[in-house]
Amino acid sequence: MSWWFTRSTRLSSEKAAIADLEAGVDWLQVGRWQTNSDLAMCVVFRIVTGDDEFAFEMIYPSVFPDAPPMIYTQDRSLVSGHQYGAEGELCLEHRPDNWLPTITGADMIASCQRLLSEERPEQGALVHARSAHIASLGRDMRSHYCRLLLTPGDLEALNTLSEYTPQPLILNDRKAASSLISSIVSVGQKDTPFWVSDLLIPKGGLEENGFVVRVPGAGKQGDISADDLKALLEGVRLAELGNTVLESDGHEHLLIGDAADWELFWIYGEAGKRKVINYTTLPIPEPKPRLPGSHASLFGKKVGIVGCGSVGSKIATSLCRSGVGEFFLIDEDIFFPGNIVRNELDLNDIGSHKAYALRDRLLRINPRIDVKALRISLGGQESANSMAGALEALGKCDLLVDATADPSAFNMIASVSTRQRKPMIWTEVLAGGIGGIVARSRPDIDAVPLAARSQIEIWCNDQGMEWARTAGTDPYGNRGSDGTPLIAEDAEVAIMAAHAARYATDILTRPDASIFPMSAYVIGFSSEWLFNEPFDTRPIDLQPIGTWGETADLLEPDALLQLLKDHLPDKETADATVSAG
After folding, report:
1. How many other C-beta atoms lie within 10 A of the C-beta of residue 299?
2. Alpha-carbon gap, residue 182 to 281, rounded angstroms
3. From the CB of residue 547, how many other CB atoms can be counted at a distance below 10 Å?
4. Can you name the residues that pair with 183 across neighbouring β-strands?
Protein backbone atom coordinates (compact mmCIF):
# COMPACT_ATOMS: atom_id res chain seq x y z
CA MET A 1 0.00 0.00 0.00
CA SER A 2 1.33 3.46 -0.91
CA TRP A 3 2.80 5.59 1.81
CA TRP A 4 0.44 8.54 1.27
CA PHE A 5 -2.58 6.38 2.12
CA THR A 6 -1.24 5.24 5.48
CA ARG A 7 0.93 8.25 6.38
CA SER A 8 -1.33 11.23 5.86
CA THR A 9 0.70 13.28 8.35
CA ARG A 10 3.86 12.86 6.22
CA LEU A 11 1.87 13.80 3.09
CA SER A 12 0.68 16.99 4.78
CA SER A 13 4.22 17.88 5.88
CA GLU A 14 5.53 17.25 2.35
CA LYS A 15 2.95 19.62 0.89
CA ALA A 16 3.70 22.24 3.54
CA ALA A 17 7.48 22.06 2.99
CA ILE A 18 7.13 22.52 -0.76
CA ALA A 19 4.64 25.38 -0.26
CA ASP A 20 7.09 27.10 2.11
CA LEU A 21 9.87 26.71 -0.45
CA GLU A 22 7.67 28.20 -3.18
CA ALA A 23 6.78 31.17 -0.96
CA GLY A 24 10.42 31.91 -0.18
CA VAL A 25 11.96 31.83 -3.70
CA ASP A 26 11.17 33.43 -7.05
CA TRP A 27 12.20 30.54 -9.27
CA LEU A 28 9.58 27.92 -8.33
CA GLN A 29 5.97 27.42 -9.41
CA VAL A 30 4.19 24.42 -7.91
CA GLY A 31 1.26 22.82 -9.72
CA ARG A 32 -1.17 20.06 -8.86
CA TRP A 33 -0.75 17.10 -6.54
CA GLN A 34 -2.37 13.87 -7.74
CA THR A 35 -1.70 10.17 -8.24
CA ASN A 36 -0.74 8.55 -11.52
CA SER A 37 -2.12 5.32 -12.99
CA ASP A 38 0.07 3.32 -10.56
CA LEU A 39 -1.37 5.26 -7.59
CA ALA A 40 2.01 6.87 -6.97
CA MET A 41 1.72 10.40 -5.56
CA CYS A 42 3.05 13.04 -7.98
CA VAL A 43 3.54 16.80 -7.98
CA VAL A 44 4.31 18.94 -11.02
CA PHE A 45 6.42 22.09 -10.77
CA ARG A 46 8.31 24.61 -12.88
CA ILE A 47 11.76 26.05 -12.33
CA VAL A 48 12.89 29.31 -13.91
CA THR A 49 16.63 29.89 -14.37
CA GLY A 50 17.67 32.90 -16.41
CA ASP A 51 15.50 33.03 -19.53
CA ASP A 52 14.77 29.29 -19.40
CA GLU A 53 11.81 27.59 -17.81
CA PHE A 54 11.67 23.86 -17.16
CA ALA A 55 8.64 21.71 -16.32
CA PHE A 56 9.18 18.73 -14.02
CA GLU A 57 7.21 15.97 -12.36
CA MET A 58 8.27 14.52 -9.02
CA ILE A 59 7.03 11.00 -8.34
CA TYR A 60 7.06 9.61 -4.82
CA PRO A 61 7.75 5.83 -4.67
CA SER A 62 5.31 3.61 -2.79
CA VAL A 63 7.99 2.98 -0.13
CA PHE A 64 8.64 6.68 0.61
CA PRO A 65 10.24 7.89 2.90
CA ASP A 66 12.50 4.80 2.79
CA ALA A 67 13.55 5.73 -0.77
CA PRO A 68 13.85 9.15 -2.48
CA PRO A 69 11.32 10.71 -4.85
CA MET A 70 12.21 10.71 -8.56
CA ILE A 71 12.24 13.87 -10.66
CA TYR A 72 11.62 13.70 -14.42
CA THR A 73 11.12 16.36 -17.07
CA GLN A 74 7.40 16.58 -17.71
CA ASP A 75 7.82 15.96 -21.45
CA ARG A 76 10.58 13.39 -20.83
CA SER A 77 13.20 15.49 -22.61
CA LEU A 78 16.92 15.71 -21.90
CA VAL A 79 17.81 18.88 -19.98
CA SER A 80 20.86 17.92 -17.93
CA GLY A 81 24.14 16.10 -18.13
CA HIS A 82 23.12 14.45 -14.86
CA GLN A 83 20.13 12.58 -16.22
CA TYR A 84 19.63 8.87 -16.93
CA GLY A 85 18.84 9.34 -20.61
CA ALA A 86 16.26 11.62 -22.21
CA GLU A 87 13.39 9.83 -20.50
CA GLY A 88 15.26 9.13 -17.29
CA GLU A 89 15.20 10.77 -13.89
CA LEU A 90 17.65 13.44 -12.81
CA CYS A 91 20.63 12.39 -10.72
CA LEU A 92 20.62 14.86 -7.82
CA GLU A 93 22.47 15.36 -4.54
CA HIS A 94 20.04 13.09 -2.70
CA ARG A 95 20.18 9.57 -4.11
CA PRO A 96 19.54 6.02 -2.94
CA ASP A 97 23.18 5.73 -1.79
CA ASN A 98 22.97 8.70 0.62
CA TRP A 99 19.25 9.00 1.27
CA LEU A 100 17.81 9.67 4.72
CA PRO A 101 14.08 9.53 5.58
CA THR A 102 14.31 13.06 7.00
CA ILE A 103 14.99 14.51 3.54
CA THR A 104 11.89 16.00 1.91
CA GLY A 105 10.55 16.54 -1.55
CA ALA A 106 11.30 20.25 -1.05
CA ASP A 107 14.98 19.34 -0.62
CA MET A 108 14.82 17.41 -3.90
CA ILE A 109 13.32 20.39 -5.75
CA ALA A 110 15.95 22.74 -4.32
CA SER A 111 18.68 20.29 -5.45
CA CYS A 112 17.15 20.24 -8.92
CA GLN A 113 17.31 24.05 -9.10
CA ARG A 114 20.94 24.10 -7.98
CA LEU A 115 21.84 21.59 -10.68
CA LEU A 116 20.21 23.66 -13.43
CA SER A 117 21.82 26.88 -12.18
CA GLU A 118 25.29 25.32 -12.09
CA GLU A 119 24.93 23.89 -15.58
CA ARG A 120 23.74 27.29 -16.95
CA PRO A 121 25.91 29.95 -15.28
CA GLU A 122 25.38 32.39 -18.17
CA GLN A 123 22.67 32.93 -20.75
CA GLY A 124 23.09 30.41 -23.57
CA ALA A 125 26.00 28.66 -21.88
CA LEU A 126 25.85 25.03 -20.84
CA VAL A 127 28.50 23.34 -18.69
CA HIS A 128 28.75 20.00 -16.96
CA ALA A 129 28.05 20.36 -13.27
CA ARG A 130 30.29 18.87 -10.63
CA SER A 131 29.58 15.19 -10.20
CA ALA A 132 29.41 12.87 -7.23
CA HIS A 133 29.07 9.97 -9.65
CA ILE A 134 31.00 6.88 -8.60
CA ALA A 135 31.87 4.71 -11.56
CA SER A 136 30.35 1.25 -11.58
CA LEU A 137 31.27 -1.13 -14.36
CA GLY A 138 28.18 -3.26 -13.83
CA ARG A 139 25.87 -0.22 -13.95
CA ASP A 140 27.61 1.28 -16.97
CA MET A 141 27.38 -2.01 -18.93
CA ARG A 142 23.68 -2.63 -18.31
CA SER A 143 22.57 -1.18 -21.65
CA HIS A 144 25.32 -2.78 -23.77
CA TYR A 145 24.20 -6.07 -25.34
CA CYS A 146 27.25 -6.75 -27.54
CA ARG A 147 30.51 -6.96 -25.60
CA LEU A 148 34.12 -7.67 -26.55
CA LEU A 149 36.37 -9.20 -23.89
CA LEU A 150 40.06 -8.34 -24.01
CA THR A 151 42.63 -9.77 -21.62
CA PRO A 152 45.82 -7.85 -20.72
CA GLY A 153 47.63 -10.37 -22.93
CA ASP A 154 45.27 -9.63 -25.83
CA LEU A 155 45.93 -5.90 -25.53
CA GLU A 156 49.67 -6.39 -25.40
CA ALA A 157 49.59 -8.58 -28.52
CA LEU A 158 47.32 -6.20 -30.45
CA ASN A 159 49.60 -3.27 -29.74
CA THR A 160 52.58 -5.06 -31.28
CA LEU A 161 50.84 -5.26 -34.68
CA SER A 162 52.32 -3.21 -37.50
CA GLU A 163 50.45 0.03 -38.09
CA TYR A 164 47.80 0.11 -40.88
CA THR A 165 48.43 -3.55 -41.71
CA PRO A 166 45.29 -5.72 -41.52
CA GLN A 167 45.70 -9.19 -40.06
CA PRO A 168 43.28 -12.16 -40.05
CA LEU A 169 41.31 -12.52 -36.84
CA ILE A 170 39.29 -15.38 -35.39
CA LEU A 171 36.66 -14.53 -32.77
CA ASN A 172 34.46 -16.62 -30.52
CA ASP A 173 30.87 -15.38 -30.26
CA ARG A 174 28.50 -16.81 -27.69
CA LYS A 175 25.29 -15.80 -26.00
CA ALA A 176 25.48 -15.62 -22.22
CA ALA A 177 23.02 -14.15 -19.73
CA SER A 178 21.16 -11.98 -22.27
CA SER A 179 24.38 -10.65 -23.81
CA LEU A 180 26.36 -11.44 -26.95
CA ILE A 181 29.93 -11.96 -25.80
CA SER A 182 32.82 -11.94 -28.25
CA SER A 183 36.45 -12.76 -27.50
CA ILE A 184 39.63 -13.25 -29.48
CA VAL A 185 40.61 -16.81 -30.40
CA SER A 186 43.70 -15.96 -32.44
CA VAL A 187 45.37 -13.25 -34.49
CA GLY A 188 47.17 -14.08 -37.73
CA GLN A 189 46.91 -16.97 -40.14
CA LYS A 190 44.79 -19.81 -38.78
CA ASP A 191 47.52 -22.45 -39.01
CA THR A 192 50.33 -20.15 -37.87
CA PRO A 193 48.72 -17.56 -35.58
CA PHE A 194 50.72 -14.63 -34.30
CA TRP A 195 48.75 -14.69 -31.04
CA VAL A 196 46.46 -17.21 -29.36
CA SER A 197 44.34 -15.61 -26.64
CA ASP A 198 45.00 -16.55 -23.04
CA LEU A 199 41.33 -16.12 -22.14
CA LEU A 200 40.01 -19.31 -20.57
CA ILE A 201 36.54 -20.11 -21.93
CA PRO A 202 34.69 -23.42 -22.36
CA LYS A 203 34.37 -25.03 -25.76
CA GLY A 204 31.37 -23.98 -27.79
CA GLY A 205 30.16 -20.76 -29.27
CA LEU A 206 30.44 -19.71 -32.89
CA GLU A 207 33.82 -18.98 -34.44
CA GLU A 208 33.80 -15.92 -36.70
CA ASN A 209 36.49 -14.76 -39.10
CA GLY A 210 37.42 -11.12 -39.34
CA PHE A 211 40.21 -8.59 -39.56
CA VAL A 212 42.20 -6.59 -37.04
CA VAL A 213 44.19 -3.46 -37.79
CA ARG A 214 46.12 -1.10 -35.56
CA VAL A 215 45.40 2.55 -36.33
CA PRO A 216 47.26 4.97 -34.05
CA GLY A 217 45.00 7.67 -32.67
CA ALA A 218 41.84 5.98 -33.91
CA GLY A 219 40.10 6.58 -30.59
CA LYS A 220 36.65 5.26 -29.81
CA GLN A 221 34.12 5.66 -32.59
CA GLY A 222 30.99 4.56 -30.76
CA ASP A 223 27.87 3.95 -32.83
CA ILE A 224 28.73 4.72 -36.45
CA SER A 225 27.14 4.04 -39.82
CA ALA A 226 28.60 2.07 -42.71
CA ASP A 227 29.41 5.35 -44.46
CA ASP A 228 31.20 6.65 -41.39
CA LEU A 229 33.24 3.45 -41.15
CA LYS A 230 34.11 3.67 -44.85
CA ALA A 231 35.25 7.26 -44.46
CA LEU A 232 37.35 6.32 -41.43
CA LEU A 233 39.14 3.54 -43.29
CA GLU A 234 39.67 5.63 -46.42
CA GLY A 235 41.12 8.39 -44.24
CA VAL A 236 43.93 6.09 -43.06
CA ARG A 237 44.63 4.57 -46.49
CA LEU A 238 42.68 1.38 -45.80
CA ALA A 239 40.14 1.72 -48.62
CA GLU A 240 40.79 -1.84 -49.80
CA LEU A 241 39.94 -3.19 -46.36
CA GLY A 242 36.83 -1.01 -46.37
CA ASN A 243 35.72 -2.51 -49.67
CA THR A 244 36.28 -6.02 -48.32
CA VAL A 245 34.06 -5.58 -45.27
CA LEU A 246 31.52 -3.13 -46.68
CA GLU A 247 30.95 -4.25 -50.26
CA SER A 248 29.96 -7.86 -49.58
CA ASP A 249 26.70 -9.48 -48.50
CA GLY A 250 28.19 -11.58 -45.70
CA HIS A 251 28.83 -11.04 -42.04
CA GLU A 252 32.16 -9.36 -41.37
CA HIS A 253 34.00 -8.42 -38.19
CA LEU A 254 36.57 -5.66 -37.91
CA LEU A 255 38.64 -4.93 -34.81
CA ILE A 256 40.33 -1.53 -34.97
CA GLY A 257 42.19 0.59 -32.45
CA ASP A 258 45.41 1.33 -30.66
CA ALA A 259 46.81 1.45 -27.11
CA ALA A 260 43.86 0.97 -24.71
CA ASP A 261 41.19 1.95 -27.27
CA TRP A 262 40.07 -1.02 -29.33
CA GLU A 263 36.61 -1.45 -30.88
CA LEU A 264 34.97 -4.36 -32.64
CA PHE A 265 32.47 -3.73 -35.43
CA TRP A 266 30.04 -6.30 -36.79
CA ILE A 267 29.07 -5.48 -40.38
CA TYR A 268 26.14 -7.23 -42.06
CA GLY A 269 23.36 -6.76 -44.62
CA GLU A 270 23.20 -6.37 -48.40
CA ALA A 271 25.93 -4.50 -50.24
CA GLY A 272 24.99 -0.85 -50.37
CA LYS A 273 22.72 -1.26 -47.35
CA ARG A 274 25.25 -2.45 -44.82
CA LYS A 275 24.59 -2.11 -41.09
CA VAL A 276 27.23 -1.71 -38.40
CA ILE A 277 26.93 -2.85 -34.79
CA ASN A 278 29.52 -1.65 -32.31
CA TYR A 279 30.67 -3.94 -29.51
CA THR A 280 31.45 -2.34 -26.17
CA THR A 281 34.99 -3.27 -25.18
CA LEU A 282 35.25 -4.85 -21.75
CA PRO A 283 38.87 -5.10 -20.60
CA ILE A 284 39.44 -8.01 -18.23
CA PRO A 285 41.37 -6.86 -15.16
CA GLU A 286 44.59 -8.49 -14.09
CA PRO A 287 43.77 -11.60 -12.05
CA LYS A 288 43.97 -11.29 -8.29
CA PRO A 289 44.75 -14.15 -5.91
CA ARG A 290 41.48 -15.70 -4.81
CA LEU A 291 42.83 -18.93 -3.35
CA PRO A 292 45.47 -19.65 -0.70
CA GLY A 293 48.98 -20.01 -2.07
CA SER A 294 49.07 -23.64 -0.99
CA HIS A 295 46.28 -24.43 -3.46
CA ALA A 296 48.66 -23.96 -6.40
CA SER A 297 49.78 -27.56 -5.90
CA LEU A 298 46.22 -28.85 -6.39
CA PHE A 299 46.44 -28.62 -10.18
CA GLY A 300 48.89 -31.51 -10.12
CA LYS A 301 46.58 -33.70 -8.01
CA LYS A 302 44.10 -36.35 -9.17
CA VAL A 303 40.90 -37.02 -7.23
CA GLY A 304 38.75 -40.08 -7.75
CA ILE A 305 35.07 -39.53 -6.90
CA VAL A 306 32.68 -42.46 -6.80
CA GLY A 307 29.08 -41.26 -6.93
CA CYS A 308 28.11 -38.22 -9.03
CA GLY A 309 24.76 -37.59 -7.36
CA SER A 310 23.79 -34.76 -5.04
CA VAL A 311 26.82 -34.99 -2.77
CA GLY A 312 29.42 -36.11 -5.30
CA SER A 313 28.54 -33.45 -7.89
CA LYS A 314 28.93 -30.69 -5.31
CA ILE A 315 32.23 -32.04 -4.01
CA ALA A 316 33.59 -32.27 -7.56
CA THR A 317 32.64 -28.71 -8.55
CA SER A 318 34.02 -27.30 -5.31
CA LEU A 319 37.35 -29.07 -5.80
CA CYS A 320 37.45 -27.95 -9.41
CA ARG A 321 37.02 -24.32 -8.35
CA SER A 322 39.68 -24.85 -5.68
CA GLY A 323 42.23 -25.79 -8.35
CA VAL A 324 42.29 -29.59 -8.59
CA GLY A 325 43.55 -30.42 -12.07
CA GLU A 326 42.49 -34.02 -12.67
CA PHE A 327 39.38 -36.05 -11.86
CA PHE A 328 38.25 -39.64 -12.23
CA LEU A 329 34.46 -39.97 -11.92
CA ILE A 330 32.44 -43.16 -11.51
CA ASP A 331 28.64 -43.41 -11.60
CA GLU A 332 26.23 -45.49 -13.68
CA ASP A 333 23.09 -43.47 -12.87
CA ILE A 334 21.00 -41.30 -15.22
CA PHE A 335 20.07 -37.69 -14.41
CA PHE A 336 16.29 -37.15 -14.25
CA PRO A 337 14.18 -34.03 -13.55
CA GLY A 338 13.62 -35.09 -9.94
CA ASN A 339 17.38 -34.93 -9.31
CA ILE A 340 17.49 -31.20 -9.97
CA VAL A 341 16.51 -30.28 -6.40
CA ARG A 342 19.87 -31.31 -4.96
CA ASN A 343 22.34 -31.94 -7.80
CA GLU A 344 24.93 -29.55 -9.22
CA LEU A 345 23.71 -30.44 -12.73
CA ASP A 346 20.82 -28.60 -14.40
CA LEU A 347 17.89 -29.27 -16.72
CA ASN A 348 20.15 -29.29 -19.78
CA ASP A 349 21.60 -32.57 -18.48
CA ILE A 350 18.31 -34.51 -18.21
CA GLY A 351 18.63 -37.97 -19.73
CA SER A 352 22.44 -37.99 -19.55
CA HIS A 353 24.64 -40.22 -17.46
CA LYS A 354 25.56 -38.27 -14.35
CA ALA A 355 29.26 -39.08 -14.69
CA TYR A 356 29.45 -37.72 -18.25
CA ALA A 357 27.28 -34.70 -17.47
CA LEU A 358 29.41 -33.86 -14.43
CA ARG A 359 32.54 -34.23 -16.54
CA ASP A 360 31.19 -31.60 -18.95
CA ARG A 361 30.18 -29.39 -16.03
CA LEU A 362 33.72 -29.43 -14.64
CA LEU A 363 35.18 -28.62 -18.04
CA ARG A 364 32.89 -25.60 -18.25
CA ILE A 365 34.36 -24.41 -14.95
CA ASN A 366 37.96 -25.04 -16.02
CA PRO A 367 38.62 -26.24 -19.58
CA ARG A 368 42.27 -26.96 -18.73
CA ILE A 369 41.59 -29.84 -16.37
CA ASP A 370 41.67 -33.52 -17.28
CA VAL A 371 38.49 -35.48 -16.50
CA LYS A 372 37.87 -39.17 -17.07
CA ALA A 373 34.44 -40.68 -16.41
CA LEU A 374 33.15 -44.24 -16.19
CA ARG A 375 29.47 -45.19 -16.43
CA ILE A 376 29.60 -48.20 -14.14
CA SER A 377 28.37 -49.14 -10.68
CA LEU A 378 31.20 -49.95 -8.32
CA GLY A 379 30.19 -53.19 -6.63
CA GLY A 380 27.28 -53.67 -9.05
CA GLN A 381 26.66 -56.23 -11.79
CA GLU A 382 29.49 -55.22 -14.08
CA SER A 383 32.03 -57.23 -16.05
CA ALA A 384 35.05 -58.30 -14.04
CA ASN A 385 37.29 -56.59 -16.59
CA SER A 386 35.48 -53.24 -16.21
CA MET A 387 35.56 -53.48 -12.44
CA ALA A 388 39.26 -54.35 -12.38
CA GLY A 389 40.03 -51.42 -14.67
CA ALA A 390 38.05 -49.02 -12.49
CA LEU A 391 39.79 -50.15 -9.32
CA GLU A 392 43.18 -49.92 -10.98
CA ALA A 393 42.45 -46.36 -12.11
CA LEU A 394 41.27 -45.41 -8.61
CA GLY A 395 44.54 -46.69 -7.22
CA LYS A 396 46.40 -44.09 -9.29
CA CYS A 397 44.50 -41.16 -7.74
CA ASP A 398 45.95 -38.96 -5.01
CA LEU A 399 42.68 -38.99 -3.07
CA LEU A 400 39.58 -41.19 -3.10
CA VAL A 401 36.10 -39.85 -2.30
CA ASP A 402 33.11 -42.08 -1.62
CA ALA A 403 29.89 -40.13 -2.17
CA THR A 404 27.63 -43.14 -2.67
CA ALA A 405 26.47 -43.96 0.88
CA ASP A 406 26.53 -47.55 -0.42
CA PRO A 407 28.30 -50.17 1.75
CA SER A 408 29.36 -52.32 -1.22
CA ALA A 409 30.99 -49.38 -3.00
CA PHE A 410 32.59 -48.27 0.26
CA ASN A 411 34.17 -51.68 0.79
CA MET A 412 35.78 -51.68 -2.66
CA ILE A 413 37.05 -48.08 -2.40
CA ALA A 414 38.34 -48.80 1.11
CA SER A 415 40.23 -51.81 -0.19
CA VAL A 416 41.93 -49.73 -2.88
CA SER A 417 42.69 -47.00 -0.34
CA THR A 418 44.29 -49.45 2.08
CA ARG A 419 46.26 -51.48 -0.46
CA GLN A 420 47.51 -48.51 -2.47
CA ARG A 421 48.06 -46.33 0.61
CA LYS A 422 45.80 -43.56 -0.71
CA PRO A 423 43.82 -41.24 1.59
CA MET A 424 40.06 -41.62 1.49
CA ILE A 425 37.11 -39.35 2.41
CA TRP A 426 33.49 -40.33 2.70
CA THR A 427 30.38 -38.43 3.63
CA GLU A 428 26.76 -39.30 4.13
CA VAL A 429 23.59 -37.29 4.66
CA LEU A 430 21.51 -38.88 7.41
CA ALA A 431 17.96 -39.93 6.69
CA GLY A 432 15.64 -36.98 6.24
CA GLY A 433 18.54 -34.54 6.24
CA ILE A 434 18.61 -34.33 10.04
CA GLY A 435 22.39 -34.26 9.86
CA GLY A 436 25.38 -35.87 8.25
CA ILE A 437 28.68 -37.66 8.79
CA VAL A 438 32.02 -36.79 7.21
CA ALA A 439 35.18 -38.83 7.79
CA ARG A 440 38.67 -39.38 6.46
CA SER A 441 41.40 -42.01 6.57
CA ARG A 442 45.02 -41.01 5.95
CA PRO A 443 47.74 -43.62 5.46
CA ASP A 444 49.78 -44.29 8.60
CA ILE A 445 47.95 -41.52 10.50
CA ASP A 446 44.34 -42.70 10.78
CA ALA A 447 42.63 -46.05 11.00
CA VAL A 448 42.25 -47.88 7.70
CA PRO A 449 38.82 -47.02 6.20
CA LEU A 450 37.04 -50.24 7.20
CA ALA A 451 38.24 -49.94 10.79
CA ALA A 452 37.34 -46.24 10.87
CA ARG A 453 33.82 -46.94 9.64
CA SER A 454 33.42 -49.66 12.25
CA GLN A 455 34.44 -47.22 14.99
CA ILE A 456 31.93 -44.66 13.71
CA GLU A 457 29.13 -47.23 13.76
CA ILE A 458 30.02 -48.25 17.32
CA TRP A 459 30.05 -44.59 18.40
CA CYS A 460 26.65 -43.95 16.82
CA ASN A 461 25.14 -47.06 18.39
CA ASP A 462 26.54 -46.04 21.78
CA GLN A 463 24.53 -42.83 21.77
CA GLY A 464 21.51 -44.73 23.06
CA MET A 465 19.37 -43.92 20.02
CA GLU A 466 18.62 -45.81 16.83
CA TRP A 467 21.09 -44.71 14.20
CA ALA A 468 19.33 -42.53 11.62
CA ARG A 469 21.33 -43.96 8.77
CA THR A 470 20.07 -43.70 5.21
CA ALA A 471 18.35 -46.80 3.94
CA GLY A 472 15.81 -47.93 1.40
CA THR A 473 14.82 -46.29 -1.86
CA ASP A 474 14.61 -42.75 -0.45
CA PRO A 475 17.90 -42.01 1.33
CA TYR A 476 16.94 -38.36 1.78
CA GLY A 477 13.56 -39.00 3.41
CA ASN A 478 12.53 -39.90 6.95
CA ARG A 479 10.09 -38.91 9.68
CA GLY A 480 10.79 -36.81 12.72
CA SER A 481 10.07 -37.77 16.31
CA ASP A 482 6.55 -36.36 15.95
CA GLY A 483 5.87 -38.27 12.73
CA THR A 484 6.38 -35.26 10.46
CA PRO A 485 7.96 -36.16 7.10
CA LEU A 486 11.56 -34.94 6.85
CA ILE A 487 13.33 -34.55 3.53
CA ALA A 488 16.89 -33.36 3.02
CA GLU A 489 17.07 -30.16 1.01
CA ASP A 490 19.82 -28.82 -1.17
CA ALA A 491 21.33 -26.63 1.55
CA GLU A 492 21.82 -29.61 3.87
CA VAL A 493 23.41 -31.73 1.16
CA ALA A 494 25.61 -28.76 0.20
CA ILE A 495 26.84 -28.38 3.78
CA MET A 496 28.04 -31.97 3.96
CA ALA A 497 29.60 -31.76 0.50
CA ALA A 498 31.41 -28.56 1.52
CA HIS A 499 32.80 -30.25 4.64
CA ALA A 500 34.04 -33.16 2.53
CA ALA A 501 35.61 -30.79 -0.02
CA ARG A 502 37.35 -28.89 2.80
CA TYR A 503 38.70 -32.16 4.16
CA ALA A 504 39.95 -32.95 0.64
CA THR A 505 41.87 -29.71 0.09
CA ASP A 506 43.33 -30.05 3.59
CA ILE A 507 44.63 -33.56 2.84
CA LEU A 508 45.99 -32.63 -0.59
CA THR A 509 47.80 -29.48 0.57
CA ARG A 510 48.86 -30.69 4.04
CA PRO A 511 49.73 -34.39 3.66
CA ASP A 512 51.58 -34.53 6.98
CA ALA A 513 49.45 -32.15 9.04
CA SER A 514 45.88 -30.92 9.28
CA ILE A 515 43.77 -28.06 10.58
CA PHE A 516 41.17 -30.64 11.66
CA PRO A 517 41.96 -32.28 15.02
CA MET A 518 39.49 -35.13 14.44
CA SER A 519 39.00 -37.44 11.47
CA ALA A 520 35.24 -37.86 11.79
CA TYR A 521 32.44 -35.44 12.60
CA VAL A 522 28.70 -35.89 13.00
CA ILE A 523 26.88 -32.63 12.18
CA GLY A 524 23.24 -31.91 12.98
CA PHE A 525 20.77 -29.82 10.99
CA SER A 526 17.76 -30.21 13.28
CA SER A 527 16.78 -31.18 16.82
CA GLU A 528 16.36 -34.84 15.86
CA TRP A 529 18.25 -38.02 16.82
CA LEU A 530 21.09 -37.07 19.18
CA PHE A 531 21.24 -33.41 18.13
CA ASN A 532 20.14 -30.66 20.52
CA GLU A 533 19.88 -28.01 17.83
CA PRO A 534 20.90 -27.24 14.21
CA PHE A 535 24.69 -27.17 13.65
CA ASP A 536 25.21 -29.29 16.75
CA THR A 537 28.57 -30.89 15.89
CA ARG A 538 29.96 -34.03 17.54
CA PRO A 539 33.57 -35.00 16.80
CA ILE A 540 34.48 -38.69 16.90
CA ASP A 541 37.95 -39.58 18.12
CA LEU A 542 39.04 -42.44 15.85
CA GLN A 543 41.91 -44.66 16.93
CA PRO A 544 44.59 -45.54 14.32
CA ILE A 545 43.78 -49.21 13.87
CA GLY A 546 44.78 -51.47 10.96
CA THR A 547 47.72 -51.90 8.61
CA TRP A 548 48.17 -49.76 5.53
CA GLY A 549 49.65 -51.22 2.32
CA GLU A 550 49.79 -54.57 0.59
CA THR A 551 50.08 -57.67 2.74
CA ALA A 552 52.29 -60.40 1.25
CA ASP A 553 53.38 -63.92 2.19
CA LEU A 554 57.09 -63.72 1.49
CA LEU A 555 58.62 -66.90 0.03
CA GLU A 556 62.15 -68.14 0.22
CA PRO A 557 64.07 -67.66 -3.07
CA ASP A 558 63.88 -71.37 -3.97
CA ALA A 559 60.16 -71.52 -3.28
CA LEU A 560 59.56 -68.36 -5.33
CA LEU A 561 61.52 -69.81 -8.26
CA GLN A 562 59.49 -73.02 -8.13
CA LEU A 563 56.28 -71.00 -8.07
CA LEU A 564 57.28 -69.22 -11.26
CA LYS A 565 58.27 -72.50 -12.97
CA ASP A 566 54.94 -74.06 -12.06
CA HIS A 567 52.80 -71.26 -13.48
CA LEU A 568 54.67 -69.41 -16.24
CA PRO A 569 54.20 -70.88 -19.75
CA ASP A 570 57.22 -72.46 -21.41
CA LYS A 571 58.88 -70.65 -24.32
CA GLU A 572 57.20 -72.73 -27.05
CA THR A 573 53.75 -72.10 -25.59
CA ALA A 574 54.45 -68.39 -25.21
CA ASP A 575 55.71 -68.10 -28.81
CA ALA A 576 52.66 -69.95 -30.10
CA THR A 577 50.39 -67.63 -28.16
CA VAL A 578 52.08 -64.54 -29.60
CA SER A 579 51.87 -65.94 -33.15
CA ALA A 580 48.18 -66.73 -32.75
CA GLY A 581 47.56 -63.20 -31.50
Report:
1. 14
2. 9
3. 10
4. 149, 172
Cα separation values, 344 from 371, 494, 496, 510, Å: 16, 9, 14, 27
SS3 at position 52: strand
Angle, vertex CA 383, rays to CA 382 and CA 388, nearest 5 = 100
d(CA 541, CA 520): 7
- The DSSP H or E segment spanning 566 is helix 557-567
d(CA 400, CA 422): 7
Distance between start and end Cα atoms, the chain: 85
Strand partners, 41: 35
Whether 280 contacts 179, CB under 8 Å: no
Sheet holding 435-441, edge to edge: 370-374, 326-330, 302-306, 399-402, 424-429, 435-441, 520-524, 537-539
**How, if at all, do strands 193-196 and 206-214 pair?**
unpaired
d(CA 28, CA 41): 19
Alpha-carbon distance values, 239 to 247, 332, 356, 362, 486 (Å): 11, 60, 51, 47, 72
DSSP state at residue 83: B
pLDDT tens, the chain, 581 aa long: 689 988 999 999 999 999 999 999 999 999 999 999 989 999 999 999 888 899 999 999 999 999 999 999 999 988 888 888 767 899 898 988 889 999 999 999 999 999 998 888 665 555 554 555 566 777 777 778 899 999 999 999 999 999 999 999 999 999 888 889 999 999 999 999 999 999 988 888 899 999 999 999 887 887 889 999 999 999 999 999 999 999 988 999 999 999 999 999 999 999 889 999 999 999 998 878 777 888 889 999 999 999 999 999 999 999 999 999 999 999 999 999 999 999 999 999 999 999 999 999 999 999 999 999 999 988 777 777 888 889 999 999 999 999 998 999 999 999 999 999 999 999 998 877 888 999 999 999 999 999 999 999 999 888 876 666 655 555 665 555 555 555 778 999 999 999 999 999 999 998 888 999 999 999 999 888 888 899 999 999 999 999 999 766 666 677 667 666 666 776 655 555 545 55
DSSP reduced 3-state for 5: helix
Query: Quick one: DSSP state of residue 338?
Result: G
* Secondary structure (3-state) at 59: strand
Q: Helix, strand, coil % (nearest 5) of the chain?
A: 30, 25, 45
Peptide linkage before 68 cis (omega within 30 of 0)? no
Q: Which of 291, 341, 276 lies closest to 492, judged by CA? A: 341
CA distance 244 to 425: 61
Q: Which helix (H) or strand (E) holds 107?
A: helix 105-119
- Contact between 105 and 17 under an 8 Å Cβ cutoff? The reply is yes
Q: What is the DSSP letter of 34?
A: E
**Cα gap 63→49, rounded to integer Å:** 32
- Rounded Cα–Cα distance for residues 538 and 561 (Å): 54
Q: Which of 533, 308, 549, 321 is nearest to 417 (CA)?
A: 549
- What is d(CA 318, CA 498) in angstroms, rounded to the nearest whole number? 7
Q: Do 399 and 416 form a contact (C-beta atoms < 8 A)?
A: no
DSSP-assigned beta bridge partners for residue 48: 53
From the CB of residue 567, how many other CB atoms can be counted at a distance below 10 Å? 7
